[in-house]
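Re: that backbone. Tokens:
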């Protein structure tokens, strides 16, 4: 009973992290391994158990997701396609091919999140100098932003650690959407990735359904609560919370 309660509480905490800074597995995966699950079973059960957390988070961010309009629909598409490709790479490549560079990739995207306002201001000023007119607000994803979002989806399906941080960096630099909307889209992208990966894992792996269900109960509530927190966080607080969480994730992966 104590183990079951721990898994539910862990699911709640992971759901909150997923809807705020996007590093849910940083909490839940080590706890499952610590409870004695083999790493593969822990990974599969964790992915399935966090799906309701994503659903709760998207419900909490429903206003922001609706406000994003076509960007939200594109995120669903590219992350679904990317997650399938990432899962295929995971099943087809030898283990350890990509893991060595993951911490550096996460740190790089943390830096992008931190300097995003300056990058956006520089891009806008550069456009004004070259074209003599103000750059219109970017409310749609450009081909370059779509490509990077797809690559982030591939990464999420292959490895996943820090994928939320990467999506914040991609959308923060590639669009002019408010950070609360970007946070909602990040939560949506993680949910889509978990659903696709979870469906694949059900077919090719053997999840611990009791653990996944307990994790799901906690993550559903945590995801919604996290979204309520994320909606009211000041931009600067949210930005540096994402950076801090990404740095911690990278350090743990070295």
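Recovered sequence:
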């Amino acid at each position: 009973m104590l183990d079951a309660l721990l898994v539910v509480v862990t699911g709640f905490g992971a759901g909150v992290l997923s809807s705020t800074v996007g590093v849910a597995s940083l909490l839940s995966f080590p706890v499952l391994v610590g409870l004695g699950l083999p790493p593969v079973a822990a990974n599969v059960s964790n992915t399935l158990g966090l799906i309701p957390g994503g659903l709760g988070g998207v419900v909490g961010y429903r206003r922001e997701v609706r406000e994003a309009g076509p960007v939200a629909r594109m995120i669903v598409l590219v992350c679904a396609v990317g997650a399938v490709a990432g899962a295929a790479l995971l099943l087809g490549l030898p283990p350890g091919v990509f893991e060595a560079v993951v911490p550096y990739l996460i740190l790089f995207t943390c830096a992008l999140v931190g300097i995003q306002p300056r990058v956006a201001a520089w891009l806008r000023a550069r456009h004004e100098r070259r074209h003599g007119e103000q750059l219109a607000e970017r409310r749609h994803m450009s081909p370059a932003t779509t490509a990077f979002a797809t690559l982030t989806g591939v990464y999420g399906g292959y490895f996943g650690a820090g994928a939320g941080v990467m999506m914040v960096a991609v959308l923060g630099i590639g669009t002019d959407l408010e950070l609360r909307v970007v946070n909602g889209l990040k939560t949506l992208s993680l949910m889509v990735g978990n659903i696709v990966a979870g469906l694949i894992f059900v077919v090719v792996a053997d999840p611990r359904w009791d653990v996944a269900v307990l994790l799901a109960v906690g993550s559903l509530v945590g995801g919604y609560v996290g979204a309520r927190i994320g909606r009211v966080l000041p931009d600067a607080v949210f930005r540096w919370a994402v950076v801090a969480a990404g740095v911690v994730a990278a350090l743990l992966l070295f």
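The two ends are 34 Å apart (CA to CA). The chain is about 80% helix and 0% strand.
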